[in-house]
Amino acid sequence: MKVHREGHLFLIALFLILAAGNYAIYVFTGLRPEWTYFISAATLLIFLFFLQFFRSPKRKIEINDKHILAPADGKVVVIEKTIEDEYFRGKERIQVSIFMSPLNVHVNRNPVTGLIKYLKYHPGKYLVAWHPKSSTLNERTTLVYEVHKGVEILVRQIAGAVARRIKWYVDSDQSVIQGKEFGFIKFGSRVDLFLPTDIEVNVNVGDKTKGGKTVIASFA
């Protein structure tokens, strides 16, 4: 298990702040030793919480052109037919939404191998990630993958009430490989997929997903 690069500076700063706070409490407050031990244990738990948030496990990805893999760890909260207006201009798509809690791995992975045909960042609000309008009103980044036979898959990173840092590491017209990292969302959020209506969905609402491992849908 390694620490993701997005967490390096944050964790160093947090460690120094917590260490300085513990030192100040020990030197200047005159608390009894048992209280200083308790405070030290509490700050260690705080540090470990943030440390686990930035974990980046190594995963063996089985590439399959017929599969659309989960772009994130989390829980499936939406599967429905909907109209997508930003890129597909009002055409019907199947939306699959994955909610990422602060305890999930927050690495985002390419669901397919293909070409990044469209990429756009949108500043916006910070509604809770499960709000129905968070997909169109919150801060978000939209990516469209062009795969075989001209099929297009849209993936949208959405910031939540806590997650206010969306990162992406790909560009338009870039070829990408299924399962490789394309981005990161800090502190819990949501990822939406918009899929063709003739595709076979392999998950149900409530299912847990693992980025790069869970098969969300399959091509015929």
* CATH fourth-tier homologous superfamily of the largest domain: Glucose Permease (Domain IIA)
Task: State the end-to-end distance.
Answer: 36 Å
Strand order of the largest sheet: 11-7-8-9-13-5-4-15
Task: Indicate the low-confidence ranges by residue numbers.
Answer: none
Question: What secondary-structure arrangement, pairings included, does this model have?
Answer:
Elements: E1 2-3, H1 8-28, H2 33-53, E2 55-56, E3 67-69, E4 74-84, E5 91-100, E6 107-109, E7 114-122, H3 134-137, E8 140-146, E9 152-158, E10 166-168, E11 175-176, E12 181-185, E13 189-195, E14 200-201, E15 208-209, E16 215-218
Antiparallel strand pairs: 1-2, 3-16, 4-5, 4-15, 5-13, 6-12, 7-8, 7-11, 8-9, 9-13, 10-12, 14-16
